[in-house]
Amino acid sequence: MKTKQKINAENKSSIKQETGNKDVESGIMDMDEAIFYLKTTRPTFYRWLRSGKFKGMKVGRQWRFYKEELDGFLKGEGPRIDLSASPDPIIKTISDKLAELGVKSWNAAGADKLKSIVYGIICLGYWMRATDIHISSHPVAGDPMFSHVHLRYRIDGILRTITEFDSRLLQPIIDEFKSMAKCDLHEHQCPQDGRILVKVDNDKKTLDLRICFLPSSLGETATIRILDSNSLKLDIGSMHISKDNLDRIHDSINLPNGMIIVSGPTGSGKTTVLYAILHSFENKNSLKIVSIEDPVEYILEKTVQVGVRVTDGVTFLTATRAVLRSDPDVIMNTEIREREQLKILQMATLTGHITISAMHADSAAATIRRLIDLSGETMITSDSIKFIIGQRLIRILCPHCAKAYEPSQDIIEKSSCMARTGGLDWSSLPHSYMKAVGCPKCAMLGLRGRRVIMETLKVTPEISALIRSNASLEQIQHTAIEQGMTTIAGDGIRRFASGETTFDEVLRVTK
Predict the structure, then answer these.
(1) Beta strand pairing call for 219-227 and 354-359
(2) What pLDDT sits at residue 81?
(3) Read out DSSP for 201-256?
């Protein structure tokens, strides 16, 4: 027996067929008419709508759809996004800045203006060597009733405002990014994450963009992480690491078992060093290597990479447990988040595995304290941890405009003091000082690019005994320096004395 709803649906379909789809020809359709027009099922229609294949509008509780929008979807086109303000100023700004960088041809022929803005934002970020793009709305100074959208790039670790534009363009730009990332165009109240693969530089380079959409009081914001696999240095020897630190890293890679930790604040290059260390293990063909990452940022050739998916029950903890049943030799966790996860990794080292991970800590010695606080165990921590890298990223001088100079006596005295307390022989340094000048190549900053400065702590029997006795950070640090460790500040002074960076930059990074 047919239900009333089925009879109504059949009647509606038959009416459409008999009238030649007059509702469809009117240009605006309700949901039933749109489903009929696309010749699909309701679940499939909902899936297309949520994934941003096309857009609809809510009238009360009812959905309405433009026939033109659905026709575009049938032709394989993206959703139509209307602009309520002129896009010409921001397109001109992007074009001018790209021209300053020597990029004259960047816009695809025939692309509409909204797509040109979005692609231009990505291209400019790539050519300016940005790691992150930030798009957000902020109040106008002195008039909180109005707002402007700020386009900012994080370049060499510093967030720089590139331009401001009309706030009426914010939502269309966000929607275009959402469409490219296959996110829900109709969701504006909850955070969303997406991914875009896009070609730049005349299709020579493919960028992997990870996007986070976040609702704010002045509209949605977009934060875009630019991952360029071509720029990833997997060879630890090509990362301009000082010889003593590099030798210690190579020694740690030859350990039969134990825990290796890379520590530092957010944005200090921990992930890059983790990948480089993992790549060094890959060169040993006899090892099975498994990594657990959130997210998987770069694809490695000889590593089984597991991405964390909390919604599916794949967490660092559950994945680590499962990995131990897959006969690994080397296990990498890009982050240690909870006590049980740490204890599993520590126990794995005691059964012959090598575990590699990253932690947030100010120094190598402070990392030991973090491990003890998280695990609650001094004995197992002293037995499992074998090697710690503490690091920062420091901006280096622009090679196109840096000039030689002689620092003041005050800077020399401060530098020599930092060198001595950091485990360096001040008299053995080259003392080839250079200063920042500024040119178009470095946006008149005098600094261009970054390098890692680090301290490497070997857990010797003496250090292990200090850990078991719950010694202070100062005691551990002092003993490590006596045994040959150069501190992060000391490594920074070494780069200053060799003409790679400035004294002020060393202070900024190590304070």
Answers:
(1) unpaired
(2) 67
(3) TTTTEEEEEEEEEEEETTEEEEEEEEE-GGG----GGGS---HHHHHHHHHHHT-S
The residue type at 209: L
Classified as helix, coil or strand, 452 is strand
Tokens 């026939």 sit at which residue?
67
Q: Is the pLDDT of residue 310 over 60?
A: yes
Contacts of 474 (CB under 8 A, 6+ apart): none
295 prior amide bond cis, ω within 30: yes
* Domain range enclosing 147: 88-230
- Asked whether 230 and 129 are in contact (CB, 8 A), the reply is no
DSSP 56: -
Q: Of 130, 136, 135, nearest to 154 (Cα)?
A: 130
Residues 200 and 254 in one domain: no
pLDDT, tens digit, 9 for 90 and up, residues 195-226: 999 999 888 889 999 999 999 988 999 999 99
Residues 147 and 248 reside in one and the same domain:
no
Q: Is residue 12 part of a domain?
A: no
* C-beta separation of 486 from 244 below 8 A: yes
For residues 237 and 365, state if they share a domain: yes
Residue predicted with more confidence, 228 or 23: 228
Helix axis angle, 473-482 to 461-468, nearest 10°: 170
- pLDDT by residue (tens digit) across 371-398? 999 999 999 999 999 999 999 999 999 9
Number of domains in the chain: 3
pTM value is 0.80
Cβ atoms of 54 and 68 closer than 8 Å: no
Q: Check if the beta carbon of residue 361 is closer than 8 Å to that of residue 462.
A: no
Token code pair at residue 354? 């090598």
- Which of the 8 DSSP states describes residue 314? B
Please compute Rg for the chain using Cα positions.
28
Q: Residue 316: which CATH number?
A: 3.40.50.300
Angle at 83 between CA 82 and CA 89, to 5 degrees: 155
Are 43 and 191 in a shared domain?
Answer: no
327 burial via Cβ count (<10 Å: 0-12, 13-18, 19+): exposed
Query: How far is the C-alpha of 511 from the C-alpha of 503, rounded, in Å?
Result: 12
Report in angstroms the alpha-carbon separations of 408 from 373, 398, 411, 413.
43, 21, 5, 9
Which bin fits 134, alpha (ψ -120 to 50), beta or left (φ > 0)?
beta
